[in-house]
Amino acid sequence: MARVVVDVMLKPEILDPQGKAVHGALPRLGVEGVTEVRQGKRFELEVEGELTEERLAQLHGIAERLLSNPVIEDFEVHVA
Amino acid sequence: MSGDLTVGVVTFPGSLDDVDARRAVRLAGHQPVALWHRDHDLRGVDAVVLPGGFSYGDYLRCGAISRFSPVMEDVIEAAGRGLPVLGICNGFQVLCEAHLLPGALVRNQAQRFVCRDQGLRLERTSTPWTSAFGEGQEIVVPLKNGEGCYVAAEATLDELEGEGRVVARYLGSDPNGSMRRIAGVSNPRGNVVGLMPHPEHAVEEGFGPGTDGLGFFALVGALVADRV
What we know:
Chain A has about 80 residues and is of the alpha+beta class. Chain A has one domain: Mth169, Chain: A.
């Protein structure tokens, strides 16, 4: 078994109102000095069998096609 | 009016406005046909509406899972051949996710779900869905969305404007932060149109702000693609 992690973040130029709302809550909790919060998504894919190059390429394809929208998001694939 | 076109309305799990869309088709004088997301079958319809709602609970991203449903393979293929396709609200999100339309729809800038009667200016009337309107005509239809903020790269926006593919723009205050106040866009050919507001909720006096929405379903002079 292997775990493949896909992180998806909004592109820097896309406004992230959710991150902004979280950021706005920080001073109310007494936390100062955080200049920005960006909210993203993390996917953990549990994979059966050996993680071959081919398998990894397939999962990379899924990260690009399904897990993220290239118009608004960037993604990174890691093997955990 | 042609009057006897068949217009398919797709129901996804979580669609809300499919019944209203079918009713709008009927009130516009055409024959609505219910289509099911899991069927690889467009039932030979002359046009397709992807309705509003929260397909798959808006999980992952709005429209991201519906885009891979069996019926969408047929819709994408038929749209390529010129079949008129109108995506309303969630349907617009599905069309963007399917790359039939450029750009994407993200969370409203103000983080609030907006529900109100919305003024629109129609800018592209050379589509089967907007041919009943005059260019520059102003209409009012309901708007209700949480993720209706239209975004695209500046170059894409310039291309849309340059090719006259902005179908409708918001009048008055921008309800959701959409770039360049865009409420609806089309593909280059014009057969595929995405619209964030809801014309299907403005088709009968006494229900909603009026009957301005009816024109979208009139399909006046619609060039009907090869039957599918």
